[in-house]
Amino acid sequence: MLSRLVFRRHILIVPLVFLVTGCTAPLYDEQTDKEITALQREVDSRLAALSDFYDKADSDLVILRTRMLASADPSAAKLAPVFDNLAASIADLRKVHEAQGRLGATALVAIRNQLNAQFSILLTYELALKKGAASAP
User: How many CA atoms lie within 13 Å of 71's alpha carbon, on the beta-carbon side?
Assistant: First the structure.
């Protein structure tokens, strides 16, 4: 079941990468870049120790989503599905964890890959902004 969810989300994510990277480049936001990296690091490192992780990840994701979607750049609105997928992935992970009482190695690898693919979309967007800001006159 988890592998089907992972596959479906990957199919939805791939077109978003092309949409995000094909947009005109607004200004790079270093704070957002740092927050994406910090959240990814947090998710990746805490998957084994999941006590208060879910609540913190949900809170961090809401803050990050609000910050990125508040951008004056209209292309930022295309990131909403990425945040929806991240929130759903974390919720799915929580459900599996609560139902089974633990997460097996296979589930951890699958969800880590899925989450990292979603974080890659956000980082690709932010790095494109950084590159555009560096080349702007």
Answer: 22
**Cβ atoms < 10 Å from Cβ of 108:** 15
Q: What is the pTM of this model?
A: 0.59
Q: How far is the C-alpha of 43 from the C-alpha of 87, rounded, in Å?
A: 12
Within 8 A by CB and 6+ apart from 96, the residues are 2, 103, 107
Per-residue pLDDT reduced to its tens digit, 15-26: 555 555 555 557
Interacting residues of 102 by C-beta distance below 8 A, sequence separation 6+: none
Compute the distance between CA of residue 82 and CA of residue 119 in angstroms, rounded to an integer. Answer: 8
